[in-house]
Amino acid sequence: MVQAQQALLETYLSDSTKLYEDWYKSINQPEEDSETVPYGFLPSKGEIKERFDNWFNEKEAFLRQKICQEWDYPSKRAKYQTKQLLIIGLVTDGLATAFLIPTQTLSTATILVLDGYLERLCPEEK
Prior knowledge:
With 126 residues, this protein is an all-alpha fold. It has 7 helices and no strands.
């Protein structure tokens, strides 16, 4: 992971509002999101979190394929000792080709890890 992305990850880990705002800006493209409002207005963090949840529900099958099957997160689960290392692994290996916008890849991976979406995608078998 390049130094600029590492610094951005540190920012995301300490500032969840910036994390969600950057994710929102990265998907705020008319071809990506038909609900886009073409103004400089940013919704509240709660509204963006709701949008992420809706986005996740729409992309869940795709993400499950990329992360759980192709990247095989279930077999790697114990390998990552910190959330930061897991995010780096997910960005560099699991989602590297899934998204064209680097900020979207990093912000998406960070939200997936921090907010429990990753475990929802690939639940641990008991």
